[in-house]
Amino acid sequence: MDVMSKLSILADAAKYDVSCSSSGSTRGNQPGGVGNAYSAGICHTWTDDGRCVSLLKMLLSNDCVYDCAYCVNRRSNHRPRATFAPREAADLTINFYRRNYIEGLFLSSGIRRSPDDTMEDLIQALSILRKEYRFNGYIHAKAIPGASSELIEELGRLVDRMSVNIELPTERSLSLLAPQKTKKAIFTPMNFIRGRIEEQSEGKRLTPRAPRFVPAGQTTQLIIGATPDTDLSILRLSEGLYGKFGLKRVYYSAYMPVNEGRDLPALATVPPLLREHRLYQADWLLRYYGFTTGEIVDERTSSLDEALDPKTSWALRNMNFFPVDVNKASYEQILRIPGIGVKSAKRILVARRARRLRHEDLKRQGVVMKRAAHFLTCDGHAEGMISSPDRLRRFLSGGPASGKSVSGELASRQLLLPFDPM
Nearest 5°: CA angle at 58, between 54 and 61? Predict the structure, then answer.
């Protein structure tokens, strides 16, 4: 099999891993045109300073000794299989880079023979890139659960970011759908990576010339909807991962029905994309807005409200907290107002040093007044039209009070509203 045929198979096999983002574009280059938004296996991610980076996203192999029920590459599936030799993967990457198709690499693999054997192949491919070709671009690689700490250490010196995918939120879910995996095997490398990153930040085990260990941190992925796990259990896990392992990001992936099985959703099941969207919003609240899982969901209400974003839903359950006076409130209090994001809150703090803010000033700070107006005041002056929580819920969810259908409003929010402001 030639290299491009392998790429077609192995790029397609990697598409369900959402640990880096994709533009979703299918626009290829045209004769006389400039640039190419679509090529096999190319996706896009973003750096901390906002730059978009194009990545070659592929598996080293889609052969796998595991038979995870939810995975398209499971051992029992009859599908085309391919494996790159380490040098083939390195050569393909550097040639794509030289043609300006990509700026970096996202590399994972099915488990061939054993976790250690697979890790050795990944390390060999990346060693060729880093040491022989002197490639200094961005590399994100998957650590293989069950591999030795020595191999994880070696891989961590070659990559910018590393991830260990948990996939399923609970031990029970793993034993049901992925019996060859255990939480211990997953958490052990995550804990090792965290320890090495902490040692590095404290200046231990480093010399001035030593390559940094996973400088962009570690991430993980959770599959949503393959099992009956609640949003409460998922967010509790995420909150624990951020606190214990210092993860940069937890990615949520709506389960795409690709296999048949008695313990899996039916093939005709619609992927829970709105639920995935709400989980990302709730995750944002955990990371940037000072919320805890118990404030977002609890034992009585273990599922996120699909009709409203999580912050608005919390606000309607806690109307005693409002209204908040934006000219007097603390940064933490302002962040709790629906329609105000992190950037808007910081702008408000800066702007009010110069003069007292009025409602018309808030729009210039990026505040979404359709939501925020009902929860804030400016020196005691309110412009919110609705004070009843029930009526406000109907209005903000696109019910009869606003003259829009709920489904239409939700569709527009999911497509158009950014995570910030919330």
Answer: 165
323 and 209, same domain (yes or no): no
Six-digit token string for 176:
């049901």
> Angle 417-300-391 (CA atoms, 0-180°, nearest 5)?
50
pTM summary value: 0.85
Cβ atoms 406, 413 nearer than 8 A: no
208 preceded by cis ω (within 30°)?
Answer: no
pLDDT in tens, 82-122: 999 999 999 999 999 998 888 899 999 999 889 999 999 99
Which one-letter DSSP state was computed for residue 178? -
CA nearest 377: which of 328, 341, 336, 415? 328
Q: What is the CATH number of the domain that holds 101?
A: 3.20.20
Contact, 192 vs 145, CB < 8 A?
Answer: no
Which domain range does residue 128 map to? 3-28+35-221
**Claim to verify: residue 208 and residue 318 sit in the same structural domain:** no
According to DSSP, the residues that pair with 46 across neighbouring strands are: 52
Q: What separation in angstroms does the CA of 255 have from each of 17, 168, 336? A: 11, 11, 31
